Amino acid sequence: MKSDPHAKSLASLVSSSIHLLINNDETNLHRKNHETHPITFDHFNPASALTHSSYFLTNQIHSLPNTKSVTYMALNHVITIDQETVLMNTQMKQSPKLLKKSAGKSSCCIFRVPKSLVEIKKEAYQPQIVSIGPYHYGAKHLEMIQEHKWRYLNDMITRTSKSLGVFMNIVVSMENEIRECYSESIDRYSSNEVAKMMVLDGVFLIELFRKVGNLVDIQQDDPIFKMVWVFPFLLRDLLRIENQIPFFVLQKLFDESKPDTRRDNTRTIQSLILKFFSYVVDRKPEAVLTQFENIDGKHLLDFVRKSFIGTKDRNSRVDGTNEPSFKLIQPATKLVIAGVKFKVNQQAESFLDIKFQDGLLLIPQINMDDFYSSFLLNCMAFEQCYFHCSKDITSYVVFMGCLMNTSADVDLLSQSKIIENYFGTDKEIAKFFNDVGKDIVFDKKTNYLRGLFVELNEYCKNGWHVNWAGFKHTYFESPWAAVSAFAAFMLLSLATLQTFYTVFPYYHKRD
Fold first, then answer.
1. What is the pLDDT of residue 294?
2. For residue 425, pLDDT beyond 80
3. Residue 386 — φ and ψ, nearest 5°?
4. Residue 209 in 3-state DSSP?
5. Partners of 72 in the β-ladder
6. What's residue 499's pLDDT?
7. Average pLDDT of the chain to the nearest whole number
8. pLDDT in tens, 79-117
């Protein structure tokens, strides 16, 4: 690239002018203070010199030809418009790093959490004890478990008698597919670093699943299992959207590490994962093993998420051109006034199985604790970022948020055994659901609960059951209210009888 002669002239002029100004100021300072003060450069102020000489520099700069074509970034840094254009052309050809242009593909499935969701509960998305994948790799506070990954890798290599190079080469062959899975560029990691990361994290997860599944013996004093605080944090960290590796990497490493003749040769990684998380998920693992043994998720979070969604058809039951307009439902306390009754759905296989029949709203029980709140938030973040999946968890959270507007609503659902509160106060649960529903995209037309929303709103319109429910709520909600209503009814009855017996003899005599 050729340099601009006018830019060179300007730089030379500025340099020589500043040099002249420094010499002049030092000379004047020496003349003024040579009798009383030693000469030191500390007395000289370059900023003052430049200020006093700004008029001189401005006139000299403007005297250069074609100065309008020059962009003055600073006195010592001058870029022409042509040079700026070249820089812009170079930047236009660069690919985005923070959100790759391929992030909309179905192959891209591991995302950074949007800022709007992070602000709701930041700690729900940040790993607390272990890093999985590149986003939090090398974080200082995660070094403790990082050291144990090497121990688990050594256990697996020793047990299978296969060289580490076998597993490394498997991952290297899938490098391009692995990089495509991340929405943020991981080019800062070399091929070797990516391979090391995937093998170390993948084998660590597989060894955990095998140990919990009783396929591999747990060392007697293994702190991951002996220290009671470690395992719960580990469970939550493994289901954070930013803390994932592709599921196909786990599958390949699992298949390669299978022994030729051992008891775990027939077990799938899916069955081991379901067994692993059954300690915090309140459902019978045997009932779901047969359904999800061969389902593949995009990663660990997506697989567990799919195990709740299942294979059932959850499409809206409202069809046709005359379907009512969609509206959100009222809170639980107002639904009760409108005649809706709440009951736990004991037959549900998933907390998503919500039904409404003849005024009875059947909702599966959910244990609101740190695990479920974190799991719901990360599933929602995944559904908000990944276009190619259903949004059932988002629909569920929106529905429950509608029901639990205040602490009184939470208390009503708790009394119905629908909510088991291990999260905090009723007010905190209501705030949680209110906050998570603020800045999310919710599809009113395709969500799996659309039909239920419409049916509930239709039921709550004015009708005899609504009026009767309102009457019961007003006059029979408490024993004292019931006594007062009964006393009023008796007084009204006695007054009617008195009127009757007063008027009846008069008309009877006339007849």
1. 77
2. yes
3. -100, 115
4. helix
5. 78
6. 74
7. 80
8. 899 989 999 999 998 889 999 998 999 999 999 999 888
Quote the CA–CA distance of 386 and 458 in Å, as a whole number.
Answer: 33
Give the residue carrying structure tokens 């697989």. 303
Contact in structure between 376 and 436 (CB atoms under 8 Å): yes
**Global pTM?**
0.76
Enter the tokens of residue 477.
């909600």
Q: Is the backbone of residue 339 left (phi > 0), alpha (psi -120 to 50) or beta?
A: left
| DSSP line for 78-109 | EEEHHHHHHHHHHHHTSPPSSS-TTTTSTT--
Report CA-CA distances (Å) from 321 to 42, 325, 329, 445.
85, 11, 22, 13
pLDDT band at 487; cut points 50, 70, 90: low
Which residue has 């006059």 as its token pair? 475
- Closest to 209 measured CA to CA, from 131, 156, 138, 286: 156
Alpha helices by DSSP H, 310-423:
332-337, 370-385, 392-403, 407-415
Taking the C-alpha atoms of residue 437 and residue 376, their distance in angstroms, rounded to an integer, is 12
Q: Which two tokens stand for residue 194?
A: 């990516």
For residues 371 and 396, give the distance between their C-alpha atoms in angstroms, rounded to a whole number.
17
Q: What's the pLDDT tens digit per position in 311-343? A: 565 555 445 445 667 889 999 999 999 899 999
Distances in Å between the alpha carbon of 124 and those of 137, 139, 239? 18, 17, 10
Alpha carbons 307 and 288: distance in angstroms, whole number: 8
From the CB of residue 37, how many other CB atoms can be counted at a distance below 10 Å? 11
Question: Which residue's structure tokens are 């042509």?
Answer: 82
- The per-residue DSSP string of 220-248 comes to TT-HHHHSTTHHHHHHHHTT-TTS---HH
Q: Which residue in 243, 220, 352 sits closest to 300, CA to CA?
A: 243
Instruction: Read off φ and ψ for residue 289, nearest 5 degrees.
Output: -60, -45
Helices and strands of the chain, counted as H and E runs = 23, 7
Burial of 206 (0-12, 13-18, 19+ CB in 10 A): buried
Q: Which residue has the higher pLDDT, 406 or 35?
A: 406
Compute the distance between CA of residue 11 and CA of residue 76 in angstroms, rounded to an integer.
6
Q: Domain limits of the chain?
A: 5-92, 115-309, 332-468, 478-510
Quick one: pLDDT band at residue 78, thresholds 50, 70, 90?
Answer: confident
Largest CA-CA distance found in the chain, in angstroms, rounded: 141
| β partners of residue 367 | 420
